[in-house]
Amino acid sequence: MNSVVKGTIRFVLGAAILAAGFGMMKGLISIKEELPISDKPSPPRAVRSSFVQLAAISPKTPVEGRVEALYRMEILTEVTGNLMMGAKEFREGMAFEEGEVVLALDDTESRLALVAQRSQFLQLLSGQLADLQMDFEGRGEAWKKYVMSIRPDAVLPDLPEPTSDRERLFLSNRGIVSSYHSIRSAEERLSKFQVRAPFKGIVVQANVRPGALVRAGQMAGMLVGEGDYEIKTAVHARYLASIQRRDSVRFFDENGSVVAEGAVHRIAGNVDPSTQSASVFCRVVPVAGQKNALRDGRFLTGEIVSEPIENAFEIPLTWMHKGNHVYEVSNGQLVEKSVEVLFQSRSHAIGRGLDSGVRVLSESLTNAFDGMAVSTESNESQD
Fold it and tell me: What does the pLDDT average to over 330-345?
C-alpha cells in the first residue's frame, strides 16, 4: 500500500472521530437544555443563637502581680554591740507582735555609765538644794520632792519647770540644765540597744546570730508586716478609662479560689511607652480562711471590678465581627447591626446598641452575610 492510500485512510478516520465527538457534544447540550431549571432557594442554614438581655454590668479588668507587704522595715542598728539572745531567737520566719523586742544588743557598759551620770546629777542637785530653797521662795518644796524622786537605776524624771527668768538663769549657771539634758540624751541612746517591732510582722532576713558584733548602721535583717498587702499590677492603656480609685479587686490562687480582696488604692499618672501600660496599686487583705495564702513575693492573678454600666449587654468576642458588628436573627434571616463597644476584655465585650430580648448569632459563622437565610432551634433559653 502506497503512501497516498495510507494518508487517505488517516484523513477519513480523523474526520469520522471528529464527527462522532461533535455529535455526542450536541446530544449532551440538548439533554441539558431539556432539564427543568429549579426556582427553589437554598435551604436555610442551621445556626446557634442566643437572646441578649440588658442589665447593669460591671467591667472586669484582668490583672496580675506580686504580693508586697504594705509595711516592711530594714533592721538597722544605730549603736554598736554584741547581739544578745532574746526571749525569741532572731531568725528567719520568727513572728513578732507590735512593740515586741526583735533584736537586743549588749548595753551593759552604757547602762552602767548612765547610772554613774544619774548619781553625779543627784549629787549636783542636792548640793544646790539649800540655795534653791533660800533664793526662790515657795519653790523649795518642789525641788526637794524632785531630788527625792531621782533613782540612779531609773529613768530621770522631768525637770521642774522654772517659774521665773531668775530661777531659769540659776539652773543654767549651776550646770543643772546641761547635766539633765546630757543624761536624757544618754537614756535615748541606751534605748537604741533594743530594736522593737513597729508593727506585727515576720523576720524574712536575718544577717546576724547571737554573740556576733553588730556595728552601727549595719543591716541586721528585714521585718515585713502581716495582714495588709499591696499588689502592683500593670494595666494596658485601653482599660484605664474604666478604672477608678476604690474600685473593688480580688485575686485568685492557682486553683481559681479567691484568696485576697481589696480596692484600687492609686493609679500611676503616666503610661510606659514601651508596654503602653500604667501601674495600678491594689491594697488587699486575705479573705477568711486564707490568712497564710498571702506571702510577700507571691505571684497572683486577679481582676478589677469597676462601676457597673447601666442598660448594657455582655457577649463573647466570638459573636462579633468587623470589630463592632453582630448579626441579629430576625424572621429567619441574619441582619447585620453595628453596636457601641464600651469595654472589651480578652474574651468578652460590654456594649450598647441592641434591644433587650433580641436574638443574635452566637457562633463564628464563615461566609455569613446580611440577609442570609438561617434556622434556629425553638427551645433555646435566654442567656
Answer: 92
Residues 6+ apart with CB under 8 A from 157: 146, 149, 150
Give the model confidence (pLDDT) of 20-61 as tens digits: 555 555 555 555 445 455 556 678 889 999 999 999 999 999
Q: Are 227 and 248 in contact (CB under 8 A)?
A: no
Looking at 193-202, 220-229, 327-336, 369-378, which range is the least confident one?
369-378
Task: Give 126-133's long-range contacts (Cβ < 8 A, gap of 24+).
Answer: 128/174, 128/176, 131/170, 132/170
237-to-62, 242, 243, 248, 278 alpha-carbon distances in Å: 13, 10, 10, 19, 7
Picking from 264, 219, 218, the residue whose alpha carbon sits closest to that of residue 240 is: 264
Q: What is the three-class DSSP state of 149?
A: helix
C-alpha–C-alpha distance, residues 102 and 203, integer Å: 9
Q: Are 194 and 66 in contact (CB under 8 A)?
A: no
Nearest to 150 by CA among 193, 121, 179, 182: 121
Domains of the chain: residue spans and CATH: 49-59+309-375 (2.40.420), 60-68+227-305 (2.40.30.170), 71-104+195-224 (2.40.50.100), 108-191 (no CATH)
**Of 344, 317, 159, residue with least CA distance to 237:** 344
53, three cell numbers: 438581655
| Cβ atoms of residues 105 and 79 within 8 Å | yes
| Dist CA 148 CA 118 (whole Å) | 13
**In sequence order, what DSSP letters do the residues of 17-38 get, joined into one string?**
HHHHHHHHHHHHHHHHHHSPPP
Integer CA distances (angstroms), 204 to 221, 270, 295, 297, 363, in order: 8, 33, 11, 11, 52
Taking the C-alpha atoms of residue 383 and residue 85, their distance in angstroms, rounded to an integer, is 66
Coil, helix or strand at residue 281: strand
In this structure, the dihedral spanned by the alpha carbons of residues 143, 148, 152 and 156, taken in order and rounded to 10 degrees, is -40
